Amino acid sequence: MQKLIVDKKFDNKKLSDFLYSNFNGLTKNTLYKAFRKKDIRINDVKINEDMVVHVNDFVTVYIVDDLLYKNIDIEKVYEDDNILVVNKPDKIEVVGENSLTSFLNEEYAFVSPCHRLDRNTKGLVLFAKTEDALNILLEKFKNKEIEKHYLAKVYGIPAISHQLLTAYLFKDNKKSMVYISDVPKKGYVKIETSFTVLEKNLKENYSILDVELHTGKTHQIRAHLAHIGYPIIGDGKYGINEINKKFGCKTQELYSYSLKFNFKTDAGILNYLNGKTLLNKRLSLPKSK
Questions:
Q1: What are the residue numbers of the active site?
Q2: Residue 46 belongs to a domain with what CATH number?
Q3: Range of the structural domain that residue 219 is part of
Q4: Burial level of 1, CB count in 10 A (0-12/13-18/19+)?
Q5: Cα–Cα distance, 120 to 149 (Å, whole number)
Q6: Is the domain of 153 the same as that of 64?
């Protein structure tokens, strides 16, 4: 049995969405079998169908843990006494219950993420293994002394092969969405995203982009590229459903593949990392065309 409280993120959303987010091993078949057997309760009331939940609803799930959770094979890309870099799979949050961090906490006395990826974005995540390392790395990210590069498969082919994009982003917490403006507005923060075209497929009308984050805001890459007319294929929130179906993609084709340490100031116990680049070797970079 598992007991959960609905947070603001899932207010007025389907119960199934809330449960899938919390239980990485839950399948549609298992869930609907539980509905039929009335093995799920909302505020102690048995239910037999998918319902809308609201913030602070109390959800009780009478499903065995073996059907709720799956074992996650976390690939370690790099590790030393101070840091750990892992290759995050999709369908898992970086922090929270049943997250990448919670799984790593079962192995390490201390491990804390220095940045985050969206739930369905795969790739490199940097963790600190000590408090001192965490404080240094957070400061380095803040001062833009660590480069983060992503591979994105987008619909369309940019006319310019390399571009630095500047815009303004507003985060709507109620809708779990962000909005982009080309001009400053109240409540919007400035963002910068650059991309380089690595591959063009004229027949299928898609491109592979190397994307660098200069500011790290929620959904920045996904929303920014969609805003300029090149949505990431597979993105169900900012993409185009018809295009996603055409390519058979259910999650965004976005991968964190490179972390480079470019320290401009003293990094204390982490000075040995300066100039080092860590790559996701599972991804083979296409050649520029």
A1: 118
A2: 3.10.290.10
A3: 149-256
A4: exposed
A5: 16
A6: no
